[in-house]
Amino acid sequence: xxxxxxxxxxxxxxxGTLAPAQLMQRAHAAGVGVMALTDHDxxxxxxxxxxxxxxxxxxxxxxxxxxxxxxxxxxxxVGLGVAAEHDALQRGLAGLREFRDWRAEEMGRRLAKAGIxxxxxxxxxxSNGRLISRTHFARFLVDNGHAPDVRAVFRxxxxxxxxxxxxxxWAELEDAVRWIRAAGGQAVIAHPARYPLTRGKLRRLLGEFxxxxxxxxxxxxxxxxxxxxxxxAKHARDFGLLASAGSDYHGPEHPWIELGRLPELPxxxxxxxxxxxxxx
Length: 280
Ligand code: AMP
Ligand code: MN
Ligand code: MN
Ligand code: MN
Description:
TIM Barrel; binds manganese (II) ion; binds adenosine monophosphate; alpha/beta; 15% strand; seven-stranded mixed sheet
């Protein structure tokens, strides 16, 4: 049985390629029963997604994926059940988008110095005037023959030590969790197996996260292996964290992750949705 819940996905409001309404249609068609939209650092797509989901009879969870800097690393915190009109969250996210705008120009300058011009303008064009992400840079560089695919672009240009890399200056962990909670949401550490952290350091992150009010761990993620599910389920149990499941879907152009295919949570997990009021 696939999981009915998919609590992590992106639309054109950040670096996904489907509009919020299209994403809801595709999730519904794929058999998802409860679908979140969690764009990076913006709540821009939530109203459109909510309206589309209501029309389909699909249960919708308004969400966000907040970029955080922790111990020199970028860590993503998903907020689930956030109220879009909340001030502290909106202001916090606006600050992150300002950093994104500056970073994008700086990436363009650094890539130009490395001999690749026009990338900022190209990436900006692909973002359609909405939030700009490294994914837009990656797509532009692929389209222009600088690398065979998005993953190769990241490896060659966009990660630490490469010409287009600009270190993140994102939110503090504590602030991200506070904004999410103030907006009525639950904070979840996204794709925990994907960070370059030792087991000890990951457990330190989990401890600090709980101390500042974090509640959940994304045990099942589209970017996790089966082994990762079990490792993360154990961490969740050890720390008393609720378990979440999300595809991290970015659109049909990224075929390694599809909607409606997530497995159930491993045995012994307490689901983040256990106390949610779900109407159907
Ligand atoms: P940003 O938040 O602008 O720094 O961009 C981060 C986004 O880039 C992530 O959410 C992924 O969608 C994408 N991304 C990061 N690393 C990779 C990678 N190695 N391959 C493909 N996409 C990646
Ligand atoms: Mn992304
Ligand atoms: Mn992420
Ligand atoms: Mn994501």
